[in-house]
Amino acid sequence: MIPTSSSSRSYLARVLSRFLICSTLILALSVALKTRSRLSLLFPSFASSSSQHTAIMSYTQERYIAELAVQRASLLTQKVFFEKAKGTVSKDDKSPVTIGDFGAQALIIQAIRKNFPNDEIVAEEESRELYEDKALSAEIWRLVKDIKLDDAESDSILGGPLASEEEMLKIIDQGNSAGGASGRIWALDPIDGTKGFLRGGQYAVCLGLIVDGDVKVGAIGTPNLPVDDAATIDASTGAQQADSSANGVLFSAVLGEGATSRPLGSGALATSKSISMRPVPDIAQAVFCEGVEAAHSAQGDNAAVAGLLGITAPSVRLDSQAKYCSIARGAGDIYLRLPVKKDYQEKIWDHAAGDIIVREAGGQVSDIYGNRLDFSKGRTLAANKGVVAAPKAVHGQVIDAVKSVLKL
Ligand SMILES: Nc1ncnc2c1ncn2[C@@H]1O[C@H](COP(=O)(O)OS(=O)(=O)O)[C@@H](OP(=O)(O)O)[C@H]1O
Ligand SMILES: [Mg+2]
Ligand SMILES: [Mg+2]
Ligand SMILES: [Mg+2]
């Protein structure tokens, strides 16, 4: 339709008013952006809080503290082993591991409280038993009060020595968070693989940071793993080598920044090296890492999965999250933890640090259905069953075999 002169005037007026509205909006937007950038220059925290969802957090400080805290707690566990557990004939004697568990938990929680006072902590142990057993509490305090890192500065960053036995007991109980889907939550297993600890085999001091349900940082100390990535460990027992100075590794990872390791005994100044899973061009050549305890993972099912994949090499059997660490550095390829009891819920402290170390080393970690481990459900992995960890390229093949064996 051709506009008449009056309708063309109103048409022009409409265009003009739209132009004015648009320019006002553009002006307002540019003023807002300028104010924001000025604010973030003046107050850097404004920039980081407002762009938190898009920026990648580096977690440098968290990794640093986690590594030092795990290192210091590992010293305690070694002291406890050599003073208390070595030569223990009965594996049922719980006291050495109890001392190590509580002592390591106290030292690590103190370091978290000192550096990240607002964070929550989900830790395995609770101190009720210690309030009832004064002799046990006194014995733990005797060992804990003298533990320090060689480097005094690092030690004071962790909070220095604990003030008293009472403080130690209070601190142990600060690992009682319910966990969940929001906020910053540390998952702590002061000694993972308690049976391995007692038998002089593999155990691990494990600490992970979960932020809004997602693992961001992990640190694991494995006092009895060989420093040499290629050293063989006894395939059937995972026992330490005779020369203990060749043992002790600290693993860590930050989401998006890779996984590293360094000798555990060499303090904060040692340089870390990057680690990665080894490629598996032919799955029949892969090596399984599996648990020692028949009650924790279904070893008959593991063997059936290996058979389906054509794997003939014997599995390397290790207690603790040393299994995650071993495959992350290429000393083994696949970690299977197929459920024995249908209703057992895995604990978040048994998996958080290992999960991120393997994923950052090029692996994929899932449950038996192929779903990612979900750390947002509280103190347990309530939404998952079992664990399957493997290099990304072959993970799908392993899941197919697991599903076929378990008839899922
Ligand atoms: N039934 C069942 N199924 C699965 N997992 C269980 C079960 N019972 C216990 N646990 C937990 O296993 C933790 C030790 O795991 P490990 O990997 O060292 O055990 S194993 O060597 O694989 O058998 C162990 O951790 P720690 O207590 O820290 O040693 C337990 O939390
Ligand atoms: Mg454990
Ligand atoms: Mg434990
Ligand atoms: Mg336990």
TrEMBL record:
The species this protein was found in: Penicillium frequentans
Record protein name field: 3'(2'),5'-bisphosphate nucleotidase
Gene Ontology biological process: phosphatidylinositol phosphate biosynthetic process; sulfate assimilation; tRNA decay
Pfam families from the UniProt entry: Inositol_P
GO molecular function annotation: 3'(2'),5'-bisphosphate nucleotidase activity; metal ion binding
Keywords for the protein's UniProt record, in alphabetical order: Hydrolase, Magnesium, Metal-binding
The enzyme's E.C. designation: 3.1.3.7
Domain of life (superkingdom): Eukaryota
